[in-house]
């Protein structure tokens, strides 16, 4: 397989060097960094920051951290500084003076495929209680995110996580991020193909590997053989989607170039069918194309989607085949439409081995260390000790015998983790927001939770599948563009002309059946206070005026 050496300083250009700076692509010989981020990555591999954290920063404290590490390389090990508490959040009065600083971190634990054992979940819960003031959010990429982490505690946290086979490696940064997998891989009765062996091999090849630790930007991966299409494959940099080939049998349809944030784009199919044993090679080919040909001049053009948009599917496939795989791929069919409008596996479902899995819904992904420890206890008492996280900020307990299902459902209910959620609890997601995120403009988690409660009270009969996604800023961490009702946090003017927290509204986005981005209705903004009234009006009118079958 062709590959540009990972260290640009040591690399020998394979191609003629352009006289123009172009887009900073290594494959065109542009190894001189064109911005500060590229310079930081060239100065030192982000993976190397771990040694400094273990030997220097955790011992000497926050002030000893090199600024280049603090603002950049810490991310290669899942660490971001969190929002300074007391600013804008109105919490100053309840915090002690020593807490009014920004020396705490968010720490992201990668949970590839959302797959956890109860031993792992218990450790996640214990770390939350001991080092993260109880915080532990389930993210929309199957990760767990802690807040309030002190640099002094990070080595011990890593010890504990790694002791049960978990890691924070490249959970953030310009790297291969967590690999999303079907949370019911290997067990679902309707599964087309189990992608787990390919996912494990992809991890083995690229994680903690300097050949893939300096990408132009983040690189998101998804693989699923579920006919529910449960990994948001449309918005990943690379995705493998289970299909049945008429001659060759089950395998994966290859998608590239999806992504939200600036200039959101849905991924495109390359028209190639990939047997499971070839998935890791193809994956390595695609990530290598991104490393070598990806744009590095401007951060906001550095995602794979821009290269795919410029090249088109045909050229991308040809480069992948000719330069990286050195063989042709087999043509294949597109995935069928999803078999369900909900893609989240909530509720009780039969497994192929006759046992059951039970999906349940916290509110907007918010749980805590105590709850997670209790979920681990329940999963052990009722199942075989396997738990999953989903891309909807939900969770699943696997391998429950029929006679244990009711008891598990009731026990979860007692923890306010319902397997029979309302449409609103089931379909609402929220990003981190102003509570902890430095980029946030508005509150999201608490607002999302109160919106759920309010809508449940006002519209108790509403049972259509529906997604409501809240972001705290113009970024897309909660996928607002793909929700029926997407709410992008910003400051807006209220009736009295005062600037208050509110949202720009996007309507009608979807993934799965008829995927597309929601329309930003020009000028349509709501204050946070008006939000329940607004959503209630939209839904009531939708129910009154929709045509037959209209979503
Ligand atoms: Fe932070 Fe904005 Fe992402 Fe929300 S969408 S987590 S506010 S960056």
From TrEMBL:
EC number: 1.8.7.1
Organism annotation: Streptomyces thinghirensis
PROSITE patterns: NIR_SIR
Residue ranges occupied by any Nitrite/sulphite reductase 4Fe-4S domain in the UniProt entry: 172-328, 426-551
InterPro entries reported for this sequence: NIR_SIR_4Fe-4S, NiRdtase/SiRdtase_haem-b_fer, Nit/Sulf_reduc_fer-like_dom_sf, NO2/SO3_Rdtase_4Fe4S_dom, NO2/SO3_Rdtase_4Fe4S_sf, NO2/SO3_Rdtase_FeS/sirohaem_BS
Region ranges (Disordered): 1-30
Protein's gene: sirA
Family label: Belongs to the nitrite and sulfite reductase 4Fe-4S domain family.
Function: Catalyzes the reduction of sulfite to sulfide, a step in the biosynthesis of sulfur-containing amino acids and cofactors.
Enzyme class: oxidoreductase
Protein name: assimilatory sulfite reductase (ferredoxin)
